[in-house]
């Protein structure tokens, strides 16, 4: 399996994202966007220039962070930045009222 | 460590590299519950168990408590952040 060039291991897919901006969706109402610097077998990740988005009772909270080690336990989905643009358009349609508030 | 190093990729920084680089530095530790702990990182291990000094506890951005030393069990940790700049929280 591993020597078949058309078979891509999950870790190889993440490896190709190193140096790129990625969108991490966590379990619960939390998302982070940042540049992936590295990761390990548990998919703990080092991210740089991070923006953290949380949905709280008071609305959306945005936090800027320089460099973080993100615990891999609660990571649900990873997107590459090239996909974010498309989804951002869809997302902006969905949350338009907030955007104009 | 996990064999994911890219040849010639000077920008790759694995979690183990990050852990080595932040010892003794000011950090922000965020737990899964959303509570932040800020202080000097004294010691930590691969499970993200953390010992901190001059620890301050923030809940929703408000300082709640101060502790001289604190131990945080790694399973609660969401992330560890270098706090080179202050957190800028939007409304």
TrEMBL record, chain A:
Source superkingdom: Eukaryota
TM region(s), chain numbering: 75-100
InterPro entries: LSm5, LSM_dom_sf, Sm, Sm_dom_euk/arc
Gene Ontology MF terms: RNA binding
Organism phylogeny: Eukaryota, Viridiplantae, Streptophyta, Embryophyta, Tracheophyta
GO terms for cellular component: Lsm1-7-Pat1 complex; spliceosomal complex; U4/U6 x U5 tri-snRNP complex; U6 snRNP
Name by which UniProt lists this protein: U6 snRNA-associated Sm-like protein LSm5
Xref: SMART domains: Sm
GO terms under biological process: mRNA splicing, via spliceosome
Residue ranges of every copy of the Sm domain listed in the record: 9-84
Species in which this protein is naturally found: Glycine soja
Automatic annotation (TrEMBL), chain B:
GO molecular function: RNA binding
Residue ranges annotated for the Sm domain, each copy included: 14-86
A Pfam family reported for this protein in Swiss-Prot or TrEMBL: LSM
Keyword presence, rRNA processing: yes
A GO BP entry: maturation of SSU-rRNA
A single Gene Ontology CC term: sno(s)RNA-containing ribonucleoprotein complex
Keywords: Cytoplasm, mRNA processing, mRNA splicing, Nucleus, Ribonucleoprotein, RNA-binding, rRNA processing, Spliceosome, tRNA processing
Gene3D superfamilies: 2.30.30.100
Keyword presence, tRNA processing: yes
Subcellular location: Cytoplasm; Nucleus
Annotated family: Belongs to the snRNP Sm proteins family. SmF/LSm6 subfamily.
Functional note: Component of LSM protein complexes, which are involved in RNA processing. Component of the cytoplasmic LSM1-LSM7 complex which is involved in mRNA degradation by promoting decapping and leading to accurate 5'-3' mRNA decay. The cytoplasmic LSM1-LSM7 complex regulates developmental gene expression by the decapping of specific development-related transcripts. Component of the nuclear LSM2-LSM8 complex which is involved splicing nuclear mRNAs.
Name under which the protein is recorded: Sm domain-containing protein
Name of the gene this protein is made from: LOC100306112
